[in-house]
């Protein structure tokens, strides 16, 4: 199930995404973690600032599911690791959205790039 255009626009315009991958029991949501998000090619992406060592990233890749809250929306979601050429467009989206931030350079560097995740809504 894809994001609606309205949902993607709302999430793209905000800076308040909190991600909660499921814990190892596959049922309990983890502690919400504030994280940067971007929209590229009509999809929602996040990256781990600390790369693949980010706790939320490891849980998201292991469990492949959880919840996000952003722009007044709360959605159960699926997580999928992303590699390949789409990362260049994701980098551009980070540059556009977070140009003024001193944290931009690490978010488009190899460590964070290796921890890129696509977030898709699950059907309710």
Automatic annotation (TrEMBL):
Domain of life: Bacteria
Protein name: DUF2255 family protein
Organism name: Mesorhizobium jarvisii
InterPro entries (UniProt xref): UCP028498
